[in-house]
Amino acid sequence: MLIRLGYDIRFYMAARTAFVAMLHVHPSRTDDLLEPDHMRIESGGTTILPDSYLDSFGNRCSRFVALPGELKLTSSTLIEDSGAPDPINPRAIELPVEQVPNEVLRYLMNSRYCEVDSMLHIATDLFGGLAPGWQRVQAINNWVHQHVTFGYHHARATKTALNVYTERTGVCRDFQHLAVTFCRALNIPARYATGYLGDIGVPPSYTPMDFSAWYEVYLSGRWWTMDARHNAPRIGRVLMAVGRDASDVAITTSFGQSDLTKFEVISDELPGAVATQ
Amino acid sequence: MLIRLGYDIRFYMAARTAFVAMLHVHPSRTDDLLEPDHMRIESGGTTILPDSYLDSFGNRCSRFVALPGELKLTSSTLIEDSGAPDPINPRAIELPVEQVPNEVLRYLMNSRYCEVDSMLHIATDLFGGLAPGWQRVQAINNWVHQHVTFGYHHARATKTALNVYTERTGVCRDFQHLAVTFCRALNIPARYATGYLGDIGVPPSYTPMDFSAWYEVYLSGRWWTMDARHNAPRIGRVLMAVGRDASDVAITTSFGQSDLTKFEVISDELPGAVATQ
Amino acid sequence: MLIRLGYDIRFYMAARTAFVAMLHVHPSRTDDLLEPDHMRIESGGTTILPDSYLDSFGNRCSRFVALPGELKLTSSTLIEDSGAPDPINPRAIELPVEQVPNEVLRYLMNSRYCEVDSMLHIATDLFGGLAPGWQRVQAINNWVHQHVTFGYHHARATKTALNVYTERTGVCRDFQHLAVTFCRALNIPARYATGYLGDIGVPPSYTPMDFSAWYEVYLSGRWWTMDARHNAPRIGRVLMAVGRDASDVAITTSFGQSDLTKFEVISDELPGAVATQ
Amino acid sequence: MLIRLGYDIRFYMAARTAFVAMLHVHPSRTDDLLEPDHMRIESGGTTILPDSYLDSFGNRCSRFVALPGELKLTSSTLIEDSGAPDPINPRAIELPVEQVPNEVLRYLMNSRYCEVDSMLHIATDLFGGLAPGWQRVQAINNWVHQHVTFGYHHARATKTALNVYTERTGVCRDFQHLAVTFCRALNIPARYATGYLGDIGVPPSYTPMDFSAWYEVYLSGRWWTMDARHNAPRIGRVLMAVGRDASDVAITTSFGQSDLTKFEVISDELPGAVATQ
Fold first, then answer.
1. What confidence tens digit (pLDDT) does each residue in C87-111 have?
2. In chain A, what are the domains?
3. Do C153 and A153 touch (CB under 8 A)?
4. What residue stretches are annotated with the Transglutaminase-like domain (chains A, B, C, D) (predicted)?
5. ipTM of this predicted complex?
6. Torsion angle, CA of A90/A91/A92/A97, rounded to 10 degrees?
7. In Å, how far is D192's CA from the nearest CA of chain A?
């Protein structure tokens, strides 16, 4: 399956402003790209070339300085996807912490929006008595999916997992933060993921496309995709970045005032297309 | 100057428990060590050898599984120190974010106990009007030092910078979290540090020695030591670990119930000693 | 000046639900009414008569049980108003607490959305150094007005004064909660008020009318109207209820699930009208 | 049974400070007093007579202005008590809200330390499925008693029910705040109570006596004593004050800086005594 990916994101700012963007397909998917994954940056009437680097989580980041006026970030690329839904493995097991690799340990810890320390007892009350493994993670995913109501007006920048637990409302990221926090509180490594997720294989949502958030859990020695927002295997996720929570993988971070003026995301299957590699 | 460093830390636990410890002198100080920096681990009547690794912040970590019963972590080592107080450089400047190195950018972001997003306005109100640079960081340090009251009974595991700002009480780590958060909110990279700090050059405190927390700010292209708790240059700091906040540099993390039964830290100048290298 | 007041508020509910409404003109304004201030309650195809009582703050409350289906609350009344703007008295003084009447003391205390205990230091930092009296209250009002941005999408049920202080956004009630909390933290009695406030004497807002919130401070032995949202004297406020914060004076409280389906408020000056008493 | 009640509470303050004290036996117990319930106030070398009033909850309050220096509040009185333990009535029922008296409705609402709005979902998850009535309240009491750990070092002035729920630690008042909030979230009126509670009929605690907190629930048309801290019927409670939470019934409130220097409470059964009325 071929998926056309892209975006057109614009900001207006009054002053020179440093930016960091995480608007690339994740390095783990580079081999699937059929066109260059190039972010075009237009600012102050000129094209800017960013500095590119990998952050400590392995995400590809771009940094640049936007000039006063409009900033336009655009991209269009093509990726080959297996077309298979998110894998399910009911036999995947929770590893004892001692078997968790060094570089995965960080995904057991507290982070800005995942206050594991404050939710330890709650997670234990709810899920501590369940048999460890895939089914327990699925129980967490079910719980969050069933108890939290989706709504764009429920979003706010500082909303944490505990806020989601008490308010029971949120957007994509809020669902995932709560599930991630429950997992970590039970010593199951979990990380936040962001990327493209179109309406492939599901009824069209007819809402403006956005990037999507999901999360991954580490079971049986590898990462598995989970999604407490949708709670059903999906086709066509294209990962952009992973981190401990939304604070690590902000699509864009501006170090100064910037106003979003346009936000379009494309993630469409190319019907009938045949991949040419 | 020679400083004798060491500790004797004991836990009791009922079950096998995975541990991560950050109880080594920081790699940046390895060349100053005059004796091996070895952590002895005794557990269940035997000596355990840990796995050692560097985390994403460059700290040396040890992981191991403690057996039921007593866990005893001990060390004694000797380090040569310049004997010079923390450097002061009133001409050190704040770098524009675009000049901050890639690997330093993370120290501008939110973390568990440093909610930059919630304290942006407060920091701007208090310090936004001051001239950038060393003096502004010093103003932050002064403010925290003067407005927060120290007391061990004010400690709690989940206390964040915002809590410290409203409660105006805390221990070492709380002072530093608040100052770190103010700095980041002003786009000054700041990181949390933990290590040894004895009563060298100051009146003895007569309280049981503990590890100490301070923080570092990135000005003029390098890190500078700051300490909102003491707010005066000190002699004999020996760094153990740096991170975004206390959650990244916990001295020990146990993945399961463990009860601290003994906690002794040593950080003494060897009077009259001459370093032999 | 004559002001036509009224509302049409509707809910849908699936089950029998107890309600308390505070939808009457405040007893202190009863003498100004030129028509009966009657709330008509239609529920389950019939007209319901409520029980009426005064709460401990002196507000007129109505309680009733709504039947499954639509609940319709309507009213239309006419009030005579002085037409004078909110009074200003720069010479009004803060009373020492010992001179505050017994029944006013409660307006110095903590309440759900006004965490005086958490904001004591902040209020002292900001306003503790100012000369007591009207000017200090005006300084508080100015500060809130200037630092908080209005927006309906910033509303949430659990938002407290401290939240407003950190987020710097909110609706009417949030502005007043923050100002009220600052006042109380400085030992100035302050209470939350809700009522009608039309666009009399100001440019029309062209937004759907709503009830409005303001607050009152106790200076020189009486209550004075303050409004951190508008920060300018207004004409035509008609008080409905006072309390410590929004939790005490909810327009309607339903003890069970109810969905708001319509909300219209009227507060219009009758042009050219002459009061007939 | 006769119980000797009394206290010796002292403060030091640098400046004239207004005080409100709730240090009297509750009006509902006045008829049981065998000696006058007189609070002696010594301040600045003289004896002060307070103004006395009933607050909106019906508690007897004393207000006065303490002079610079030591403030000494003392009392000794004698009360006759039934000697019966807190009554238990497994058949007591929850009233539908519509049958709750007007003056009891306030005990269903939010208050400073009882954030009903934030804990609605949590309470429903835990107790919403249980049959209404005494047994459900008992289930709440059991839950809090079993899940929260007592410790004086866990006290802090701003701790709310939600904090207690996440931290699972606290003192008397914290246990009761959590239970009260659970009850209200389920539409069971609940109020906070403070008073004397000696070691009558239980093993002596050997800790310094303090006033105690408990709570009351409104079932079958009357208030019943509950105590999530002890979770067992006790003998010899003497009520001093009731309110929505600890903020309403502070033993003393000082409007200015005051330092507690002594705190002794007496609540002893007079062995073998015979009441003379």
1. 999 999 999 999 999 999 999 999 9
2. 2-82+251-269 (2.60.40.2250), 97-235 (3.10.620.30)
3. yes
4. 164-230
5. 0.93
6. 120
7. 23
